[in-house]
Write a structure and sequence with these properties.
The chain has one domain: Muramoyl-pentapeptide Carboxypeptidase, domain 2 (2-Layer Sandwich). 36% of the residues lie in helices and 7% in strands. A 4-stranded antiparallel β-sheet has the order 3-4-6-5. The protein has a two-stranded antiparallel sheet with strand order 1-2. The radius of gyration is 19 Å and the shape is globular. The two termini are 26 Å apart. 37% of the residues are buried. The chain binds zinc ion. Zinc ion binds next to strand 4.
């Protein structure tokens, strides 16, 4: 960004006017069919609460607890289908001498709000506008209600530092993942940011994250559901939620991913 907060704000507002920050389905997917072709409509299979992380994974029938030996966290969960795929990937990595450790998996809205509010209160943000603060936090962290970690389809592996994946064991892990993860359905959605922007085809949103891997067979369905049902009005309540639409958070961040 080179235009500074004021220009960005104006640009963001203009985009909101253009895009309406509405659910994509209202614009493209719900036109009544006049014939037998109903393939343009996307019928969501997940509730808005699920998409926003407003649920308890421990009590949800579609989720399973990650075995303690596979993670350094207590009691974290993935959708069972995702955990099954990860189990196969982990076994394959293990047989190749590649150690994988899950550092984070499903995080619900309340957990993400805790992360967000801790960052929001940083002393260095003294005097910043809500827009500037939110945009800075969103270099790496999601607004509550907009994280792929709400969906139970995404995992963080090994280390939260891109540099770790560049040398030694980290480089071996990364080389293995980039060569083999796709076979098991996993993809690194936060690759290098595009220099052009979403309209020119480059990726927008969060910075490079070599640790974040998504189970695409399911997360692509969750994203389609999200685009069909969630609007900026759904994303609340926490400090700064009012700037969700001026940041164009659904288009630039939730949809700011690399696709296989
Ligand atoms: Zn992550």
């Amino acid at each position: 960004m080179t235009g500074g907060p004021t220009l960005v704000f104006a640009l963001g507002s203009a985009l909101v006017l253009l895009c309406g920050c509405e659910a994509a389905g209202t614009a493209t997917g719900t036109t009544p069919s006049t014939g037998t072709d109903s393939t343009t409509a996307h019928a969501p299979t997940h509730t808005v609460d699920e998409l926003l992380g407003r649920f308890d994974a421990a009590a949800h029938p579609d989720f399973s607890r990650i075995p303690d030996a596979w993670t350094d966290k207590d009691s974290i969960y993935l959708r069972t289908e995702v955990l099954d795929a990860y189990s196969r990937m982990r076994a394959s990595a293990d047989s190749a001498g590649i150690p994988l450790l899950i550092r984070s998996a499903t995080r619900n809205f309340e957990y993400q709000r805790g992360i967000w509010e801790r960052k929001w209160d940083r002393p260095r943000y003294m005097g910043w506008s809500a827009f500037e603060k939110a945009r800075d936090i969103m270099t790496y962290s999601s607004m509550p209600g907009t994280s792929r970690h709400h969906w139970g389809t995404d995992i963080d592996l090994c280390e939260f530092e891109n540099e770790w994946f560049e040398t030694g064991e980290g480089a071996q892990v990364y080389a293995w993942l980039t060569a083999h993860a796709a076979r098991f359905g996993f993809h690194q959605v936060y690759n290098e940011l595009g220099s052009i922007g979403v309209d020119g085809g480059g990726r927008t949103g969060y910075n490079l994250e070599r640790w974040h891997w998504s189970y695409m067979p399911l997360s692509s369905v969750m994203l389609a559901d999200y685009n069909a049902t969630v609007t900026c009005d759904s994303i609340q309540i926490f400090p700064g939620h009012q700037v969700a639409d001026s940041l164009d958070v659904i288009r630039r961040y939730v949809n700011g991913i690399d696709r296989p």
